[in-house]
Each structure stands twice: as C-alpha cells, then as structure tokens.
Amino acid sequence: MIEPDHPQLSIVRQCELVLISRSGFYHRPAEETPLNLELMRRIDAQFLETPWYGLWQMARHLCREGYEVGRKPIRRLMA
Asked: What global pTM score does this model have?
C-alpha cells in the first residue's frame, strides 16, 4: 500500500494516511530458525497422531526424541 518512491507523498504522509507508524512500515519480523522449523514439524506430526497431547506431554515427547527444549519455547511453537 505504501510506495517508497512516490513522487508526491513522503513515506511519513503515506503512513499517516493508512494509520500505521513509520516503525511499523520499516519493521521486518525475524524468520524462524531451522531448529524451530524442525520442532514445529515434529509437533505437527505428533499432534496428528495424539491430538490430546498438551504442552507437558509434547515437551516429554520431544525430550524422548532427543530435543532439549523447555516448555516456554514449545508453548510458543504450539500456538
């Protein structure tokens, strides 16, 4: 929606018109790490087999598979 090279409207004005902050325009979210992508893949595969697994059971399952990861990262990845 915002054209950085617009001949008449500055980026500041364009951001004001679409009601976003300039920092919101420039912000690029960080990409997931390869480890997180692998964990999400394993969580998805296990969840298809056992949809009743919650956070604690999923954490134990990943530990049994050799991944040393805490509950908080698993909670974020499951969300």
From this structure: 0.67
